[in-house]
Amino acid sequence: MIDARLLRDDPEAIREAQRRRGEDPSIVDALVEADERRRSTIAAFEALRSEQKSMGKQVAQAQGDEKQQLLTRTKELSAQVKAADAEQTAAGEAFTALLKALPNPAPDAPPGGEDDFVLLEEVGAPRDFAAEGFEPKDHLELGQLLGAIDVERGAKVSGSRFYFLTGVGAQLELALTQLAMQKAAAWGFTPMIPPALVKPRAMEGTGFLGQAAADVYHLEKDDLYLVGTSEVPLAAYHSDEILDGPKKYVAFSPCFRREAGSHGKDTRGIVRVHWFDKVEMFVCTSLEESYAQHEQILAFEKEWLDLLELPYRVIDVAAGDLGLSAVRKFDCEAWIPTQGKYREVSSASNCTQFQARRLDIRNRLDDGGTEPTATLNGTLCAMPRIIVALLENGQQADGSVRLPAALHPFLGEVLEPVAKAGA
Q: Which among 419, 415, 421, 422 is positioned nearest to 168, based on CA atoms?
């Protein structure tokens, strides 16, 4: 959540931040009112508590009728203090609930919604399949020819939007995982394999129980959540701790998403699914350093896509398309030939101190004080979409797929069909 001082010092800036996201700015008025009530109830409680303490000293020194009167007042004060304490607690909880619903302001992100992104660059040129003399197959047909993807049995076993990676498909994911983890370790990230189930505080603390709650799987009996990204356990890893320096982690984990509101979208293949594996980067640093770290994470993602020899573009995501926690997000989108467009394969987000305030993660300062940590996250390899991009961009006329040089040590140069086209 944001620093409450921002709300008091410049509420109009927060209103403008809401407008940039396309959100209702009236929540700021409700927050200002709730903050005033919270502070007034605290003052009232402290005044009564102070009188209660002084009354105790007076009772000890009084005698006779005066003492009896003071004792009567002491009983009254006790009830008033109890009521004032309950009132300040309720006011504090109401204010915190509203504050947690307020997104992180995003002054540097483009204003607007999903279609209002700013194109930053395009890297590489899409292949001209017409000039090569054949029409490209989509990833599902290629996956079936290669014996790499089985969505029919995925649906039979688990339902729609589930799949099996089989044969070279499974080997390709394992190769991508190993390569991604090796690269990130070389960049200074500590490899991690975190839990895929987390407590409510971890999910709420990272901002995934707000606007994204509909996409989250909840195990009610155990009150645990299946993570949609390893950002969640990585952020909570240092909750309630004071850090003595920056931390950089890279994690492999399964990710689970309901994909609420996506009915009818990307129903073919493995572009939009309920479960997938992912390698994710995560950084804890100072607020001042977070902006340079954001650019560095994007540079790592671009280096990864260059390594995979994929054509892609980079966009600056508009404020209204950001999650609750991020102030700015860069997406890398790979070219998907059969769709004739770029599709997101990675993102890099700066969440500044928003998550750390919720999770109580602080940095130790040189003067002995502390301040909230800044957190950043960046996708290195979301397996299904990278596999989609590799298959479609590397395909040959006979249904084989030529792999980038970085994957040759794992799988060789070419994935050969195990079935005939149309079989």
A: 415
Catalytic residue among 257, 357, 358, 362: 257
Average of per-residue pLDDT across 103-124: 93
Quick check: is 51 catalytic? no
Reply yes or no on whether 344 is catalytic. Answer: yes
10 Å CB burial of residue 100 (0-12, 13-18, 19+) is middle
Provide φ and ψ at 68, rounded to 5°.
-65, -40
Beta partners for residue 332, in sequence order: 314, 346
Q: Are 402 and 413 in contact (CB under 8 A)?
A: yes
Q: Which helix (H) or strand (E) holds 280?
A: strand 275-285
| The pLDDT of residue 239 | 97
CA distance 178 to 89: 50
Query: Greater confidence, 51 or 162?
Result: 162
Sign of CA dihedral 177, 346, 278, 299: positive
Residue among 347, 349, 357, 392 flagged as catalytic:
347
CA-wise closest residue to 268 among 143, 174, 418: 143
| Residue 257 designated active-site | yes
**Active-site residue among 73, 201, 272, 343?**
272
pTM (two decimals)? 0.88
